Amino acid sequence: MFERSDETLIKQALKGKKSAWIALVKRYEKPLYNYALRMVSNPDDALDLMQDVFVAVFRNLSSFRGDSPFKGWLFKIAHYRCIEFYRKKKPTQSLDDSPEPEEIDDTACPEGSLSTGQQVIGIQNALQHLPMNQKLVVELKFFQHATFDEIAKQLGISVNTAKSRLYSGLDKLKEYVELDYV
User: Fold this and answer.
1) Which of 49, 89, 94, 120 is deepest in the core (most CB within 10 A)?
2) Angstrom distance (rounded) from CA 170 to CA 147
3) DSSP characters for 13-68?
4) Apex CA 48: angle with CA 36 and CA 162, to 5°?
5) Is residue 57 located within the same domain as residue 109?
6) Of 102, 137, 172, the domain-final residue
7) Where is the RNA polymerase sigma factor 70 region 4 type domain (predicted)?
8) How far is it, in rounded angstroms, from Cα 122 to Cα 103?
9) Residue 70 sits in the same domain as residue 158
């Protein structure tokens, strides 16, 4: 059986077909949840963010122009919701107060190829130490498989800035991961 394209599902959802909307949600719920979990490191907050993003997408589906892929538009909304989350978050909350991140579904992202769950948790913890602008670029490049052009367009920055943030973030990640294993 063939899989309907995002564009087909969007057209059907806009005409009021519930099954098309449900198919879109099911297609993107795992990647969106994993993205939110990597950004906020709390399963409950990740679920809330995912729900908030899908509500926003549902309300604004008619404004999707199709200039870029639906997935990019969806994750751009998720990106803004994560920024809003951090703006609302208490500025005095320490990273040490954050709960341990859960393991992420390894069918939806590449870290499943790591040999142990401990390594995954170590990388997740290291990601939490990155500044938001670097964490977003690392997330988009390695977990969403976006190109530098796509990252630049989605974040409203130049390609060189995206590259700079990625390499700075990777340098910091390397330091944090090495500290955990020394």
Assistant:
1) 49
2) 16
3) HHTT-HHHHHHHHHHHHHHHHHHHHHHH--HHHHHHHHHHHHHHHHHHGGG---SS
4) 25
5) no
6) 102
7) 123-173
8) 11
9) no
